[in-house]
Amino acid sequence: MKMKKILFIGISLVLVIASCRKRLDDFLFNNVKADQYLLDDYTGRITLEVGSEYDVADSMIHLINIPIQSEGQNLNISALYTGELSRIAVDTVILYCHGTADNIDFYWPRQKLYSNMGGKCRFGVLMVDYPGYGMSEGDPTEQNMYDAVNGALQWLKDNGLTSDRLVIFGFSLGSAPTCEVAGNPTEFALAPAKMILEAPFASAEKMIQDASILALPSSYFVNVKIDNAEEIKKVNIPLLWIHGEADSFLAIDKHGEIVYNNYQGPSKTAVRVPSGDHEDTPLIMGYPNYLSTIMNFIEQ
Prior knowledge:
By secondary structure, this protein is of the alpha/beta class.
C-alpha cells in the first residue's frame, strides 16, 4: 500500500511538471501563426486601440521577407517596415522587438504610434516576427529569435542604415534580443546607438521561478537561458527604461528594476508608470506623453 502511494505521488509529480512545462513555455513563446497580416482589419485581441490620427498611409507600409540561417535551417522571416524605403539611408530607424504574444498584427497599434512620433513617418520603424510567429517560418527558439533580429539588422544595413541612426527597442520578450544585440555589438551587422526597454524581464530563470509552484530550476521547464540582468551589464549605449508599477506579468521590482540597476553604461533614464500594467503603459501615460518621452530620448 505504501509503495502504491509513493508511485502515485511520483506519477502525479511528473504530470505536474509536464503540465507546468507547457504552461511556462507559453510564457516565453506564445506565438500565433498567420497566412497573412490584417493590420487595420485585424479583429483579434488587442490591448491598445489608437485613433485615426495614428493611421499610416498604405504607401508607407512595406511587408519585408528576410532570409536567415539558424540552427541548420534556412528560414524566411517576415517583417513590417513603415516609412519610405528610399530614406533608410538618411532616416533614424527604430528596430522594434515585440513581446511574446501573437504576432505583428497584435503589435500593429504600437508600430502605428511610433510611426507617428513627431510627425508622419518621421522615424522609420521595422518590426520583425520571430520564427513561428505570424508569417515567419520555423518554430521559436532562443537562438533563432536572435538570428531573426540579426537578419533584420543586416537588411537595414543593406538598405543604407548606419549605426548612429539605429535605435533598438525591446518590449517584454523582445528585451532578450535587444539586450543581446546591444550587449554584444561585434556579433551583429549593426551596433545600435540607443536602446529602449519596456517591461523587460530579468531572466528566464527568474520568470520560471515566479510562475512555478515547484522549487525546481528553470531547466526542468524550458531550454532557454536568457539572462537580461547579466547582458545589460555589457551595454555601453544610452538606455531608456519604461515599466508599469502594477505590472502583473513581470513585476517591476523582480524584473525591470533589476535590469535597470544592473546597467553600467553612459546614461540611463527611468520611467516608472504608476498603475501601469504589463501592456497598457502607453495608454496610462497618454499616447502624446508616451511618444514625446521616447522621441526626446532619441533626439537628445
